[in-house]
Amino acid sequence: MDELLIVTTGGTIDKVYFDDKSDYQVGEPQIGRILQELGVAFRFTVIPILRKDSLHVTAEDRELMRATIAAQPTRHVLVTHGTDTMVETAKVLATIPDKTIVLTGALNPARFRGSDAEFNIGTAVGAVQSQPGGVWIAMNGRVWDPARVRKNVAANRFEALG
């Protein structure tokens, strides 16, 4: 992998807690900071597209993601995304040929101690380098085919369909 394109769309991974509002809001993308702190041995470019909870991602937003990724020459793409609608977005991105695209996110904000964000990002970086072309989801220490996975909201994890 010569270079990694990272597209950020928001989601829990980038959420920030505001005490005065007693609410979470999507903040600045965290992945660039995380990769720099880890001292990764590859070049990467971060393109922030959205700052949304994935429950608010629209068909137009998914088309913007698809068009943005398709227009870039980079073959390896990592997308940070909210977990609730990650599978739906993966299906739209599957229409992009000749790229390996991995979606990841977090069940707890990256800024929180004990967040799964760094682990999921590491899994996604490994997956984008080792998986064949197509679209994949990296969550909970596994790499999933989007057609064969779902988020189990009650258990707060991804699991195989069926």
From TrEMBL:
Q: Name one Pfam family in it.
A: Asparaginase
Domain L-asparaginase N-terminal: where? 4-155
Which InterPro entries does the record cross-reference, listed alphabetically? Answer: Asp/glu_Ase-like_sf, Asparaginase/glutaminase-like, L-asparaginase_N, L-asparaginase_N_sf
Which domain of life does the protein's organism represent? Bacteria
One function term, GO molecular function aspect: asparaginase activity
The UniProt record gives the binding positions of substrate as S54, T83, D84
What this protein is called in its record is Asparaginase
Chain coiled-coil ranges: none
The UniProt entry annotates the active site at T12 (o-isoaspartyl threonine intermediate)
